[in-house]
Amino acid sequence: MIHYDKVSKIYADKSKALDSVTFSIEPKEFVTIVGASGAGKTTLMKMLIAEEWPTHGAVYLESANIHKLNKREMNKLRRRIGTVFQDYRLIPNKTVYENIAFAMEAAGRSDSEIASDVPHVLELVNIEPKIWNFPGELSGGERQRVAIARAIVTQPDIVVADEPTGNLDPTNTYEIIRILQKINDLGTTVILTTHNKGVVDTVGGRILTMEKGKVIKDDKHGKYIL
Amino acid sequence: MIFTTFKRITRTGFVNFWRNGFLSFAAIVVITLSLSVFGALIFTSAFGRTLIADVKDKVDINVYFTQSSPEEDILNLKKDIEALPEVARVEYISRDQVLTDFKTKWQDNALIMQGLDEIGNNPFSAILNIKAKDPGQYGSIADFLEHKNPLAADGTPLVEKVNYQQNKLIIDRLGRIIPAVEKTGFAAAIILIIVAVIVVFNTVRLIIYTSKDEISVMKLVGASNIYVRGPLVVSGIMYGIVSGIITLLLMAIVAYWSDAVILRFAGVQIASDFELVVNVLSRYFVQNFGQIFILILGAGIILGGLSSYVAARRYLKV
């Protein structure tokens, strides 16, 4: 279980990104976090992978306070969370295969596992023909599929997707959401942030609505109200 | 697992080195220039030491004896002088030898040879040629001779003159200049080495700065620090190795090219007068190649590897 306990984030310029946010996410849930730009969605996600530190409060994964873990424990935690970024964050001088293999290498997987799992996961996200291409040779939708492949290849407990469809056309958007749903069906917790109403309507399920750093609505079968 | 990790880090480092072609090229150029500074210092030092040794070797004092001085007395004095701690060596040149040397030197000059014939007998004195261990020590040797003032059996002085006073000015200057040159050279070398290290470190830091997003992504997928930093260090070591090899080639070219240049600029006569200076760099390069190889390649590896290691540290704090 993931638990945000009165988490606030105040930056040096006194702007408040999160304001005493409290909620929990159960294993295998598909949670969509919606809100306008600047509502605090990305900061919330960054807290989970310890890319940001809370000013007040704490974020727990099971019983562990994420921000109190040592380096080794932090690396292990991050291997349990697959992250998909809006800007893909693929490594430009590595091929598609190498970008995904790297996540497996970091997780300590053997060469034979990597050789068998990478093509398999690329098949799952329908990008296998581009296996030896570099990110610069791919379209936005293709890059996002690679980013998803990288996030799920280690079979993490949780996948965090921060605006994964922000730069995509409707066809690719639908494809990415379908992949995320498939991952969730296989038992992985998925946390998706978006400000795209169409995406929310497609996904359904639990929806957390954020505004000015606060969760203003938590609806198990809600709709995008903004 | 450790072997697998090492293999992956090394492979990734090699691949990055090859794929980041322009950045690798830039790093190699900068490190090569810095190592060339080391190389230039090695050569300058070798050349300077040889030149100083040659100049020191040229400085000496001659003790000229009266024509009636018995050889036995001169040889006794030679023994006394050799016993002095400041003295490196003493050479006795008999009157006959001085005459023979003179004739050999001027054999093509008919006028001088004719003059010598007209004198009839040997007009030269026997000589003791004295070389001190250090140019600054000739004064005390001259003092010794002055105070000893050796006399022949009949009470007449043995020594006609010592040419120390004539050479004193140049000997004193050399005694001051040589240590000053050595100290200045050492200080200049330290400054140049510091500048070279800073330039290399900043270049490598800039190269790693361009990878900061990749580093943060690697950290966010759970890669350990060694997994992220290792390939960067391997690439840094590669920069150092390639730069070291290029620098050694440049040094070899300079060493052999300098022989021809010295001969051309100094002229054959001067070059033969300063015999030691000719071929000094090529000879030094060949004789000390093992040490130079380890020094240049080691400096390259340490510069590249350590700069990468240190520069990557700040981006690992994700």
One letter per element, helices H and strands E, the order of chain A comes to EEEHEEHEHHHEHEHEE
Helix content of chain A: 25-40%
* Rg of chain B, Cα atoms, Å: 31 Å
- Name the largest protein-protein interface in this structure: A-B, 24 and 20 residues
Uncertain regions of chain A: pLDDT < 50 for 5+ in a row? none
Structural class of chain A: alpha/beta
User: Uncertain runs of chain B with pLDDT below 50, 5 residues or more?
Assistant: none
Mean pLDDT of chain B equals: 85
Main sheet overview of chain A:
6 strands, mixed
Helical residue percent of chain B? Answer: over 70%
Percent of residues of chain A in beta strands? 25-35%
User: Helix count of chain B?
Assistant: 11
Alpha carbon gap, first and last residue of chain B: 25 Å
What is the number of helices of chain A? 7
Provide the descriptors you would attach to this structure in a database record.
heterodimer; A: alpha/beta; four-stranded antiparallel beta sheet; globular; B: alpha+beta; elongated
Structure, described:
The complex is a heterodimer of chains A (226) and B (318). Chain A is an alpha/beta fold and 226 residues long. In chain A, 35% of the residues lie in helices and 26% in strands. The longest helix of chain A has 16 residues. Chain A is globular. In chain B, strands 2-3-1-4 form a four-stranded antiparallel β-sheet. Chain B is elongated. Chain B starts with a helix and ends in a 5-residue tail after the last helix. Chains A and B meet through helix 2 and helix 3 of A and helix 1 and helix 8 of B.
